[in-house]
Write a structure and sequence with these properties.
Chain lengths: 147, 146
């Protein structure tokens, strides 16, 4: 920009420059839609599983204290509320595991990034199949249905 | 002084720990998928599921070298995977420097303590411990009757 042009502009009324938002954020894996939501879910499920893992190592360590102490704590895992909690745990682990495999394919498979959206929906599909198998089985165990 | 190193500047010396962390998350992740789904199947799906878990059940598993190795791998791989994941989240979200340091030390310490505790439990565990008479019936069936 030459000085004369700049001088002309300076005399005009000062208007804040408006930069329009892009219509859609293109060319990125981690902003918006499947890519971002799988990332959000991966973080949330990861933190949840981590805190369960801390508790689970401590409760299992009770086998080293006494059979009575271990059984007293593990029996609380068999109540209906904890039984539903185990469904939530398996759901979180299943999603984290399947999406983790998707991340590995995105990173190492030559055409992985191109298929990341499709792979997200495959992850959701496999996750539903996994839970369709586990939830009835767990409800049978917890609420004492068939053997 | 430039904020970004010139493209032709020599690479920083030493081990690239972030790269190895990145590789570890993927390598351990694949193994953990197998180990955890195996663990969940044996403990929650097979037989009577969670209701079958008690001291005798765990003692039966930990008397078997196969499950000892399985559980040791599970302990080490999962805790380091989870601890490194938490480190990533703390670095992303804890903007306040002292709080970030405290959280990172807390994650590091709990990872180290639980790995030591868990490993000691697996390898010092006696499936047939000396117990008061009231707890004899809680022992696995393979223990000698006193």
């Amino acid at each position: 920009m030459s000085e004369s042009q700049a001088g002309t502009l300076a005399k005009e009324k000062l208007v804040a420059p408006t930069i329009g938002l892009p219509k859609r954020p293109a060319g990125t894996l981690y902003r918006g839609r499947e890519g971002m939501w799988s990332w959000v879910l991966h973080r949330i499920t990861g933190v949840a599983i981590y805190f369960f893992l801390l508790v689970h190592i401590l409760d299992t360590a009770l086998v080293r204290v006494s059979p009575e102490a271990y059984n007293a704590v593990i029996n609380t895992y068999k109540t209906p509320i904890m039984g539903l909690g185990e469904i939530a745990l398996v759901a979180a682990i299943g999603l984290h595991a399947l999406n983790g495999l998707r991340i590995i394919l995105i990173d190492f498979w030559s055409v992985g990034t191109r298929h990341q959206k499709l792979m997200f929906w495959i992850v959701i599909g496999l996750w539903i199949v996994l839970l369709a198998g586990f939830i009835p089985r767990q409800l049978m165990h917890i609420f004492g249905g068939g053997e | 002084m430039t904020a970004v190193p010139l493209p032709n500047s020599p690479r920083r010396r030493g081990t690239n720990w972030e790269k190895w962390g990145w590789i570890y998350m993927r390598a351990s992740g694949v193994v953990l998928v197998v180990l955890i789904f195996g663990h969940l199947f044996v403990n929650l799906v097979a037989g009577e599921g969670v209701k079958a878990i008690d001291f005798a059940f765990v003692a039966g598993k930990l008397a078997d070298p196969f499950w000892k190795i399985w559980d040791t791998l599970l302990l080490w791989l999962a805790l380091i995977h989870g601890g490194n994941g938490m480190r990533t989240l703390i670095n992303d979200y804890a903007g306040n420097r002292p709080i970030r340091t405290i959280l990172l030390v807390a994650v590091g310490a709990s990872t180290a303590i639980l790995i030591i505790l868990g490993t000691l439990v697996i390898y010092t565990f006696d499936p047939c411990p000396v117990v008061p008479a009231s707890q004899l019936e809680l022992l696995p069936s393979f223990c000698p009757v006193p």
